[in-house]
Design goal:
By secondary structure, this protein is α+β, with helices and mostly antiparallel strands. Among the domains are: 79 residues; 94 residues, Alpha-Beta Plaits, CATH 3.30.70. Helix content is 59%, strand content 18%. A hairpin with a 6-residue loop joins strand 2 and strand 3. It is rod-shaped, with a radius of gyration of 46 Å.
């Protein structure tokens, strides 16, 4: 009986130890790797730790430029070329140029890598006259770190469930573990997609560029002497025009009077004696 009791106690202790180990595995936490610890070879926690967390700020800019009305299309192309330059590494989202409204209007939307955001915004001032500029930033550092930690925990849980599956021969437990593994993998995919979304939102910055066409500048003012000569010419032309106009009226009337006198004078001479008697 004593031997049986000892053996039974040993079995109970062994079962309790296995249960404790199983509970730790189900929690999905590996004691070999602290939660949120940096990956091997990363610089997180050092002076260059920002590299490990990646870009963590969503940057947006809205810029309004004024360009000559006849250079609107070329200015829009310059914005596109600035973003798609290999040195910049950005791309075009949309571009619209309307030349029917007054001097024209254009709207160009581009995305550039976040490290090149400020240089590109500064370079836009070389395309036209800066009328308005608005810059915005949203810090997603906490979201990025939280998403990465959740992915690490999900990976650890999947690995823990797979280890438990390899160690068991119980069919019921195998069936349950396979269901848990499938659910854990679905969660892992969802968390990885969320992490990729946060990384994508912070990796590229958006710049909206509004282009307005300006009226051409007025011609430079002429010197005083040149303006006086031009005024004298205008007055002379006005006088000559008046003379020509007057001549156009006087000459026909005078010709008509002469014709009437030539015709009427002989008639009057013939009628004069009769009128005197």
């Amino acid at each position: 009986m004593a031997v049986r009791r000892i053996a039974f106690s040993v079995v109970i202790v062994a079962l309790l130890a296995a249960a404790c180990a199983g509970d730790g595995d189900e929690a999905g936490v590996s004691m070999e790797e602290p939660i949120g610890a940096p990956e091997a070879g990363s610089d997180y926690g050092s002076a260059s730790g920002a590299t490990d967390r990646g870009p963590s700020v969503v940057k947006e800019a809205s810029v309004e430029l004024e360009v000559p009305g006849d250079e609107l299309s070329s200015a829009a192309q310059e914005v596109v070329d600035l973003a798609t330059d290999p040195k910049t590494g950005g791309y075009l989202v949309s571009s619209v140029v309307d030349l029917d409204d007054g001097y024209g209007y254009g709207a160009v939307k581009i995305k550039v890598p976040s490290p090149n955001f400020e240089p590109v915004v500064n370079d836009l001032a070389g395309i036209g006259r800066m009328m308005r500029q608005r810059l915005e930033g949203q810090d997603l550092s906490d979201d990025f770190l939280a998403a990465r930690t959740k992915v690490q925990l999900a990976q650890q849980r999947v690995a823990s469930l797979l280890r438990r599956l390899d160690r068991t021969d119980d069919r019921a437990e195998i069936f349950e573990l396979r269901q848990d593994i499938a659910d854990a993998k679905d969660d892992l995919v969802r968390l990885q997609q969320n992490k990729s979304y946060v990384e994508g939102a912070t990796s590229y910055s958006t710049i909206d560029v509004a282009l307005t066409g300006a009226a051409p500048p007025p011609p430079p003012e002429k010197p005083a002497i040149e303006r006086a000569v031009a005024t004298a010419k205008s007055i002379t032309l006005a006088i000559l025009s008046g003379i020509v106009l007057a001549a156009g009226v006087i000459v026909p009337v005078g010709a008509l009077v002469i014709v009437l006198w030539l015709i009427g004078a002989p008639i009057m001479r013939r009628l004069k004696p009769r009128l005197e008697t």
